[in-house]
Amino acid sequence: MSTVLETEEHRALRDAVAALGKRYGRAYMTGVIREGSHPRELWSEAAKLGYLGVNLPEEYGGGGGGMAELSIVLEELGAAGSPLLMMVVSPAICGTVIARFGTEDQKRRWLPGLADGSVTMAFGITEPDAGSNSHRITTTARRDGEEWLLTGRKVFVSGVDIADATLVVGRTEDARTGKLKPCLFIVPRETPGFGRTPIDMELQAPERQFELVLDDVRLPAEALVGDEDAGLLQLFAGLNPERIMTAAFGIGMGRYALGKAVEYARTRQVWKTPIGAHQAIAHPLATAHIDLELARLMMQKAARLYDDGDDVGAGEAANMAKYAAGEACVSAVDQAVHTLGGNGLTREYGLASLVTAARVARIAPVSREMILNYVSHQSLGLPKSY
């Protein structure tokens, strides 16, 4: 894929991560899934090479880059068939929020570990009854002297079993107005009252999904991230990187599937020529390539705006990038499976499992319909129906 809009450093990073990804590849990831394990070896090596913390501040052990660099890492690992989903959560959401809004003590405690991969953090926002409506979050935190008591439920929280802590979105009561406002709390895994139950998923991925139950979880004052009054700003500072990284996840997966289909179409011969010579096969693959390229351009725009500190502009671009990447990924995977015919459904070629996985980019962390609502209201100025 073309990289003319990237710096020489970005191209070098892309090449280096691609080489790492190829050393592991899809066979490694499917083996990890089959064993019910985690991609620890790849995570550890990527961390050792400085890729996991490339977006975090240098003074805390990171690479001093931004979302432009981190999205390259995830995209290239995905294009090699071995994406690390926890990159979306640990360095991108949690690392960014703590780096931008955490206290000095929080930065010193958490960022070096997030940067070198020795510490992993999960992110809990979704609730059973709130869905995509973050304003309906019912997980509440109330003061008890100098401490906090956190109570509520979360669902579809990735990787809690391997995470050292979870960044939980709760709500506190505003003393002046009595209204609830969002706040973020760091909850270590073994905190009393912090229960987790795995959700049985059809999705084949090494990262497990969990339901969390927080039953009067007692937290020290320093568990609250940053300023109690800046919760909404802090929350969206984490959600824009999440959307950018989900776009990278989808683009990488789409590229992997497309690469397998193109390779097959070049060599598979049924009549006198390879099937890729027929437009009925070639044109849909060309369309998939175009759509992935366009999605990547919007992802690069979103990353640049975010890294430049334009949160409003990044919000629009990140939502558009996530939407475009989700659609492009699903289409690329579908066309890849179709190109291989029956072989596309075999374990040998490893594409069928991506049919379910590709839909993640359409559904999470926010559905394509909610993104269309965002664009309708924020970009076009149309009235809300809700």
Explain how this protein is built:
- 51% of the residues lie in helices and 14% in strands.
- It has 386 residues and is α/β, with parallel strands linked by helices.
- Strands 1, 2, 3, 4, 5, 6 and 7 form a seven-stranded mixed β-sheet that branches.
- A hairpin with a 2-residue loop joins strand 2 and strand 3 (147-158).
- The model has no long low-confidence stretch (mean pLDDT 94).
User: Kindly state the mean pLDDT as a whole number?
Assistant: 94
Q: How much of the residues is beta strand, in percent?
A: 5-15%
**Class derived from helix and strand content:** alpha/beta
Distance between the termini: 41 Å
How would the global form be characterised? Answer: globular
Helix-strand sequence = HHHHHEEEEEEEHHHHHH
Number of helices: 11
Extended strand count: 7
Helix coverage percent: 40-55%
Strand count, sense and barrel status of the largest sheet are: 7 strands, mixed
Q: Compute the gyration radius: what is it?
A: 21 Å
The poorly predicted ranges are none
Question: Helix and strand layout, with pairings?
Answer:
Layout: H1 8-35, H2 40-48, H3 67-79, H4 86-101, H5 104-116, E1 121-124, E2 140-144, E3 147-158, E4 165-173, E5 180-188, E6 194-198, E7 209-219, H6 231-267, H7 279-307, H8 311-340, H9 353-358, H10 360-363, H11 368-379
Parallel strand pairs: 1-4, 2-4
Antiparallel strand pairs: 2-3, 3-7, 4-5, 6-7
Helix pairs in contact: 1-3, 3-6, 4-5, 4-6, 6-7, 6-8, 7-8, 8-11
